[in-house]
C-alpha cells in the first residue's frame, strides 16, 4: 500500500542502529544534507555568516535564527519543489552565539540585540535547484519575526486590565515572541508558533507574585538578563524586569509577562501582516498546536499541550462552524477551551474552562478561600479574560489529569485519532501514578492517543497508550509497542519522545529530546545513542529508527513536500555542552567550526517517496 489505494502505508527501509557520530545518519539509500543553518542570510543586505561569532545584532536580524524547532512547508501553487519554509527558533546558546560566550556583568547592548534577534520565526522562500539541492530564494516574502516584533492580542484577553502596559495602555498589543518550541499551521494557510518556556525570561520584582505569575514560576531561569543592558534603559529591554511603579498598570510593565504564553498566528504569505496572539487558546507553556481535520458545518478543533511536569493537555472548540474561506478571526477568537481528564478505565472527559459553564463556575466558587496547588485562591476570576490569563489555575480547579510533560500532538489523517508525546517526568512518585502516566520517576516517556466519542468537538473520548519509551526488554523502564504487544528492540528503543507528526499518508514520525547528561552516554541513557527520529505504522505498532542526529543535539521539527519526496527535519543545539572555544560538535560545517542548529533535507537516492516502497 502507498496510501493512495486506501490501504495503510508500510515501511520499506532497514532501520538504522543507534549512533554516537557527530553526523546525521539516515538509512541505506537515503541522503541527508544540512540546509539554512543558523546565520544563513535571508534578508536585507544578506550579511554573510561569520564562523567566529562576529555577526552583529543587526546582521542576525537579517539571518536565520538560532535553535531551529517546529517547522512547516507551505507549497507555492501546490509545488513540491518551491515553497515557504517557516520555522521556529526556540532559544539561544550564548556560548556559540557570541565570539567568546556572553560578557560578564551588565550586558553589552549588541549582545542583547543579537540574542533577541536570534529568537522567533524565519519565513524563507526555498526552491529545488536544477542540481537537486534546495536553495534560498531572495524574496520579498523572506521575513524574520523576533523578540522585538510588534504583535496584536486578540480573543477574550484583548484589552483586559491584566494586559495593559506602558507600551499598550489599551491592552491590544505586545512586543515579540520567545521560546517558540513546536508549531502548528491552519487549513487557511497560516503558521502557528507556540510560546513555551517564556517564564524563564522575566525577572519579576513583585513579592509576593500575583497568581497569574506565581502559578507559572516566572523566575527568569533562562538567565539572559535582557533588562540589564549597559548604558541603556529603553523599555524594549527593561520590560523583562517588571515591577509596579504605582497604582496605574499603564505606567509600567507589571503586565508584560501576561503578553506571553500564547499561540501566535503568522501569515507567511504577507510580510507586512502583524502576528496575532490568539488568547482564546489559553496561556501556558504551549509546546505545539494541531487541528482536527475541519468539517464544513462543524466547529474547528485545536489541541495543545503544556510542557511542564504535571501539566495538562487542552482542546479548543470554536464557536463558529467551519466554512470554506474562514480564517483565524472567525475560528480562533471565540470558543471554549477544555482540559483533559484521562480516567483509569480508558475513558476520558473534556472539562470546560469557561465562565459561561455552570459546572466550572460552581467548582471555581467552591475553591475560593482554599489553596489550589500552591496558590491561595482568594477571589474568583472576574471574567473569561482573567480565566485565560490564569489557564493553569483554571485547569487545576476543573480537576484535569496531571501529565508527564505533554509535548507535541498529531492527528492521524486515516482515523482521526489524536496522539501526544509525554516526554518524561522524573518527579512522579509511585503514589502519584495513574493509567495514563503509569511509571514513577519516569525518565523515558510514553505516547498516548485517543479517539473522540463522535465529532472532534465531543466532550468525551476513549484513550490508550500507543508506546512506552524505554530500554531493551528486562529493564525496569522497558520500551514497548503496546499496539504490537511487543518489547522494543535494538531497531527502535527510544527515550523522551518530543516531536510527533503525521505525514499525509498516515505514517507517525517520532523525534526524541533526551536533555542534559542523558545526551553524552555517561548516564543510564547510554544505550539510546544520540537523539533520533523514528517512524511508526500506527495500525500495526511497528516502529523503526530512521535518523540519528549529531553530538548533543535534539531532533525536532518536521515537514514534507506534498509529494512526500523531500523531508525537512530540524537539528537543534548540536554541541549543547560546548564551552567558549571548546566546541563539542562541529556539525554541520566540520573541521574546527562552531556548531550550528540547522534544517536537514532528506531525500531518497532513487527519487522515491520517503519511508515506503
Ligand atoms: Fe521546547 Fe517542550 O520542548
Ligand atoms: Ca519540544
Ligand atoms: Ca523537550
Ligand atoms: Ca529544545
UniProtKB/TrEMBL annotation:
Pfam families: PhoX. Residues 592-602 have a biased composition (Low complexity). InterPro entries: PhoX (IPR008557). Residues 1-12, 574-613 are annotated as: Disordered. It comes from the Bacteria. PANTHER family: DUF839 DOMAIN-CONTAINING PROTEIN, SLR8030 PROTEIN. This is Tat (Twin-arginine translocation) pathway signal sequence.
Amino acid at each position: 500500500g502507498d496510501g493512495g489505494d486506501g490501504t495503510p502505508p508500510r515501511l520499506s527501509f532497514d532501520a538504522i542502529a543507534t549512533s554516537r557520530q557527530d553526523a546525521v545518519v539516515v538509512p541505506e539509500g537515503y541522503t541527508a544534507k544540512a540546509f539554512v543553518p543558523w546565520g544563513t542570510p535571508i534578508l536585507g543586505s544578506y550579511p554573510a555568516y561569520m564562523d567566529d561569532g562576529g555577526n552583529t545584532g543587526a546582521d542576525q536580524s537579517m539571518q536565520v535564527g538560532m535553535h531551529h524547532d517546529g517547522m512547516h512547508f507551505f507549497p507555492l501553487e501546490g509545488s513540491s519543489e518551491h515553497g515557504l519554509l517557516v520555522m521556529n527558533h526556540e532559544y539561544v546558546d550564548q556560548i556559540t552565539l557570541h565570539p567568546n560566550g556572553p560578557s560578564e556583568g551588565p550586558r553589552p547592548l549588541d549582545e542583547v540585540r543579537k540574542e533577541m534577534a536570534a529568537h522567533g520565526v524565519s519565513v524563507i522562500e526555498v526552491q529545488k535547484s536544477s542540481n537537486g539541492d534546495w536553495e534560498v530564494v531572495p524574496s520579498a516574502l523572506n521575513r524574520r519575526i523576533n523578540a522585538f516584533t510588534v504583535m496584536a492580542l486578540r480573543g477574550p484577553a484583548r484589552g483586559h486590565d491584566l494586559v495593559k502596559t506602558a507600551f499598550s495602555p489599551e491592552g491590544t498589543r505586545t512586543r515579540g515572541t520567545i521560546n517558540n518550541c513546536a508549531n502548528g499551521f491552519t487549513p487557511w494557510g497560516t503558521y502557528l508558533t507556540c510560546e513555551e518556556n517564556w517564564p524563564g525570561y522575566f525577572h519579576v520584582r513583585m513579592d509576593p507574585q500575583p497568581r497569574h505569575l506565581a502559578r507559572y514560576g516566572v523566575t527568569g531561569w533562562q538567565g539572559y538578563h535582557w533588562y540589564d543592558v549597559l548604558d541603556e534603559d529603553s523599555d524594549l529591554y527593561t520590560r523583562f524586569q517588571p515591577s509596579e511603579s504605582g497604582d496605574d498598570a499603564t505606567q509600567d510593565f507589571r503586565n508584560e509577562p501576561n503578553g506571553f504564553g500564547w499561540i501566535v498566528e503568522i501569515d507567511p504569505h504577507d510580510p507586512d501582516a502583524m502576528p496575532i496572539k490568539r488568547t482564546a487558546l489559553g496561556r501556558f507553556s504551549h509546546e505545539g498546536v494541531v487541528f482536527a481535520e475541519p468539517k464544513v458545518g462543524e466547529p474547528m478543533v485545536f489541541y495543545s499541550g503544556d510542557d511542564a511536569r504535571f501539566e495538562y493537555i487542552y482542546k479548543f472548540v470554536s464557536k463558529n462552524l467551519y466554512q470554506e474561506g474562514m480564517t483565524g478571526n472567525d475560528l480562533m477568537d471565540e470558543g471554549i477551551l477544555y482540559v483533559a481528564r484521562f480516567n483509569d478505565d480508558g475513558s476520558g472527559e473534556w472539562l470546560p474552562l469557561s465562565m459561561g459553564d455552570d459546572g466550572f463556575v460552581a467548582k471555581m466558587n467552591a475553591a475560593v478561600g482554599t489553596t489550589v496547588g500552591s496558590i491561595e485562591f482568594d477571589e474568583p476570576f472576574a471574567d473569561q479574560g482573567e480565566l485565560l490569563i490564569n489557564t493553569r489555575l483554571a485547569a487545576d480547579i476543573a480537576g484535569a489529569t496531571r501529565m508527564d510533560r505533554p509535548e507535541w500532538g498529531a492527528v492521524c489523517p486515516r482515523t482521526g485519532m489524536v496522539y501526544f508525546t509525554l516526554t518524561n517526568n522524573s518527579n512522579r512518585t509511585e503514589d502519584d501514578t495513574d493509567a495514563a502516566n503509569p511509571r514513577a520517576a519516569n525518565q523515558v516517556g510514553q505516547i498516548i492517543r485517543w479517539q473522540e466519542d463522535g465529532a472532534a468537538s465531543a466532550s468525551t473520548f476513549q484513550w490508550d497508550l500507543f508506546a512506552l519509551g524505554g530500554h531493551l526488554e528486562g529493564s525496569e523502564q522497558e520500551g514497548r509497542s503496546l499496539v504490537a504487544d511487543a518489547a522494543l528492540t535494538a531497531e527502535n528503543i527510544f527515550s523522551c519522545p518530543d516531536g510527533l507528526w503525521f505525514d499525509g499518508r498516515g505514517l507517525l514520525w517520532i523525534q526524541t529530546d533526551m536533555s542534559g547528561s542523558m545526551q553524552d552516554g555517561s548516564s543510564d541513557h547510554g544505550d539510546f545513542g544520540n537523539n533520533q527520529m523514528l517512524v511508526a505504522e500506527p495500525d500495526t505498532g511497528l516502529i523503526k529508527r530512521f535518523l540519528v542526529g549529531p553530538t548533543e543535539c535534539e531532533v525536532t521539527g518536521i515537514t514534507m513536500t506534498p509529494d512526500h519526496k523531500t523531508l525537512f527535519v530540524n537539528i537543534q543545539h548540536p554541541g549543547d555542552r560546548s564551552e567558549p572555544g571548546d566546541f563539542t560538535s562541529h556539525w554541520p560545517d566540520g573541521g574546527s567550526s562552531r556548531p550550528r542548529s540547522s534544517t536537514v533535507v532528506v531525500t531518497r537516492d532513487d527519487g522515491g517517496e520517503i519511508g515506503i516502497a
